[in-house]
UniProtKB/TrEMBL annotation:
Residues 11-71 form the HTH tetR-type domain. Keywords: DNA-binding. The keyword Cell membrane does not apply. GO terms for molecular function: DNA-binding transcription factor activity; transcription cis-regulatory region binding. InterPro entries: Homeodomain-like_sf (IPR009057), HTH-type_TetR-like_transc_reg (IPR050109), HTH_TetR (IPR001647), Tet_transcr_reg_TetR-rel_C_sf (IPR036271). This is TetR/AcrR family transcriptional regulator.
Amino acid sequence: MPKSTFFRLPEERRARLVHEAIAEFADRTYAEASLSQIARRANIPKGSVYQYFEDKLDLYRWLLTEEAPRLKRAFVGMPSPEGDFWTRFDDFVERGMAFLVEHPRLARLSAAAADPTANPEVRGLHKAICEAGLQELRAVLEVGAERGALHAPDLDVATRLVATIIGPGLTDVVLQELGAELHEVLASDSLRKRLGPKRRRALAHQAVDFIRKGLGSGKPERRKET
């Protein structure tokens, strides 16, 4: 995790270091990425990086488990507790797809950690962020359950099933449609442009409709009193 000196950096310098570190780890494998390159890209002495992080793994761990998820949450947001739950969940899924399109480097950063040939410590980090993502999704579905919008006798099981549909399942649909592998999509502006807002909304709606028919209670929602 970052040392206190990192947080004392001027905001502009700190943001530049984070930006270039994300770029380095997204453009190269963990083994190929280097602190020297990050320092060069950020226009700072290499030794300065060690004033802010213990080593390369420490920096990568923070980016993968703290900074990237924070940036994604800021972009995607959480479904509003107001209004129809399934409509809000539909928007939530579409924003998740939009994140891949508009922030490919952050998506590549996470995808690289899932590579079975990656450093075992790196693969362990990927498992940790997946579990954290499941907990966030569970909190979203819990709201739907409390409002009576969905029926899930075991919310943990439901969360993993829903995560599979809107994660690997929806990704597979997109890749089949584009006729490309994930790394090709994340590296190609032209491929990502084919996944425009209209198509994302259509795919998100189809996925959420499938989930709703499986988990929907079929009863009117219990609205929050204002």
